[in-house]
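TA notes. Do not distribute before section.
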Amino acid sequence: MMVQWYVRANCGVQRVMRRLRKEQQGLTMVEYGVAAAFLVLFLVGALMIVGPQLKNWITVTMDRIVNGRGA
């Protein structure tokens, strides 16, 4: 009886390990991580280019609103 459970458990573990090796899900997670890193780099670059212009626009708009000249 115990031998039968051991054999079943062992076969199940081997089947799961074979499936994981075949699917290579760990590699997929690394690919998602690399894609996320490139997205962050792109966003930081875009903000560095647009940032000073956006800051200037916000400052001018706030000054106009505070001084009563509207947006």
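Switch to the second chain here.
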Amino acid sequence: MKKCGVVIESLSAVGVLNKLSAAGISVLGAEKIQKNAITVWVDGKDCKKVFAILRGSCYNIKEVKSRGVERVRRWCIKSAGLLVGAALFLLLVCGFQNRILRVEVTGSGAYYSAQVMDILEEGGAKTFSASPAENAQIKASILALPRVSFCSLRFDGGVLKVVVEVSDENALSSSSPLLSPATGQVTELTLVRGRACVQVGDSVEQGALIVDASMEDGRSVLVMARVTVRYFVQQEYALNEREALAQAELDYGVLQECVTSPTENGILIEGYATATSSVNL
């Protein structure tokens, strides 16, 4: 039941109870708050009737108060904007407290940041996603990076902190630039350190500079890179077709777009092979 209270002042304020009762208003409660003032509680639906009955009489109606559920209801109506804002805030807090808002890669292997971010994304751990509950596979992939000896993941306050440590860089075997292993087209280039002189899709000659150890600002760095070049193969074998294909695979690996043609001396093999070269990777 919704209740409302009417504060009434009069020399004979108590007499209002009889007046309301005679008018068929059910008085749910009354409280004398001053010598000549009382608060009368009635059903919420009778509140307007009370004002109509007492209007023009000797009673001074000072204010109307809400009680119980009615008071809460009216407060909620007045504070609707505040309540909506608070609800949205709580939803945001609850929704994002377990979400990744930022990723930090630290440690001596922090230069692997780009690779770590790719590994995290492949593992489903990206911005605004939930923190990974199972990160064993992610750690395994990071530890598989060259010379990575330690990896840890910790989620704290929306930040996924990844620590990557590598073994002593002085133990690296080569500080030379990366050169093309064949004449053809670059199909893959992985660059961790160094200055790329070509990009995927470029045509290169065998021995061409792919990644330089000298940066544009003059600094020298230790090259860490890998390149794959696709090149054309044309080789004749004095064998039958099956034997020629087997020998070509031994010589060049699996050929793409492979075509065989009979010749006077045997079989001509044509196709595309790939050659890969790396420095410190």
